[in-house]
Design goal:
It is a single chain. This protein is of the alpha+beta class and 136 residues long. Helices cover 20% and strands 44% of the residues. It is built from three helices and seven strands; from the N terminus they run E-E-E-E-H-E-E-E-H-H. The longest helix is centred in the middle third of the chain and has 13 residues.
Length: 136
């Protein structure tokens, strides 16, 4: 089948002690709350391993250095002839919270406890995946 292609997306759920880093990014001017809380995410570059990509993206978007602890869950979706494969990682940092330096794409950052995920994260499927992953 020609014309089909894959993208590899990675999500870094960064943990320090009992808290997790959430970042606020712009989604859409046409919705009531155009800025939404999420975890650090991005796309792996061609030829880059997903593990290396998530560490690079965390550093680029937040200034934090982290290490991969484990894969939490995966997801897929199709748009046209493009299949996106997503891999969510639990990543650990021991850097000071003041070390967060956000890229221009991000509006704010907040460290939250796992019991606060449903207060900040609106994506119900992601919340269900996090609950099954039992990270808190």
């Amino acid at each position: 089948m020609t014309g089909n292609k894959y993208r590899i997306l990675v999500k870094g759920i960064v943990q320090k002690g009992n808290e997790f880093l959430t970042v606020q990014k712009w989604y859409d001017d046409n919705i009531a709350d155009p800025y939404q809380w999420e975890f650090v995410d991005g796309e792996a570059e061609f030829g880059e391993s997903p593990d290396a990509a998530v560490i690079r993206i965390i550093q680029e978007q937040t200034g934090l250095t982290a290490v991969v602890d484990r894969i939490l869950y995966t997801w897929t979706f199709m748009i046209g002839n493009e299949c996106s494969l997503g891999i969510s990682y639990l990543c650990i940092t021991d850097m000071d919270e003041d070390g967060v330096v956000l890229s221009e794409d991000l509006h704010d950052a907040k460290w939250i406890g796992g019991e606060e995920f449903d207060v900040y994260i609106y994506n119900k499927r992601m919340l269900e995946d996090l609950e099954r992953a039992e990270i808190f």
